[in-house]
Amino acid sequence: MREIRGIVGDNGLFMIYENASPDGEDRDTWLRRWDRQKQSWTVFTPEEWDAITAHVHANDFPETTSQWHSLGRQAGFSLVRELFVAPTDLWRMYCFQA
Fold first, then answer.
1. Which of 6, 7, 49, 61 shows the greatest Cβ crowding within 10 Å of its Cβ?
2. How far apart are CA 41 and CA 34, in angstroms?
3. Helical H runs in 11-76?
């Protein structure tokens, strides 16, 4: 993120849409919420859902909202805003301004 801060310069911004947790939620709770959304993903076969879920359980480590703000400030961004929270509350969009 520090490299991105250097790239955007003094007037730039960086936007990211990432898996994220509300403050106070741990990864296990986030994963349980992920698992509960299976019935909403009707386009996938059971095998496809299982493959996606295996990937998520092995590779997704959502940061909390406070952690995203802290990462932005540590990288040198002066302003961090949460722009969007997905209806499932599993993903969030942040804007980091120089």
1. 49
2. 11
3. 27-36, 46-59, 65-74
**What is the pLDDT, as a whole number, of residue 16?**
97
- Residue with token string 């007037």: 11
Domain segments of the chain: what residues? Answer: 2-97
Is-contact 15 23, C-beta < 8 A? no
pLDDT, tens digit, for every residue of 74-85?
Answer: 999 999 999 999
Gap between the Cα atoms of 36 and 75, Å rounded: 34
CA angle 70, 11, 79 (to 5 degrees): 25
Collapsed DSSP state (helix, strand, coil) of residue 4: helix
pLDDT tens readout for residues 54-63: 999 999 999 9
Closest by Cα among 97, 71, 86 to 20: 86
Strand partners of residue 63 = 20
CATH number at 2-97:
3.40.50.150
Cα 98 to Cα 94: distance, rounded to the nearest angstrom? 13
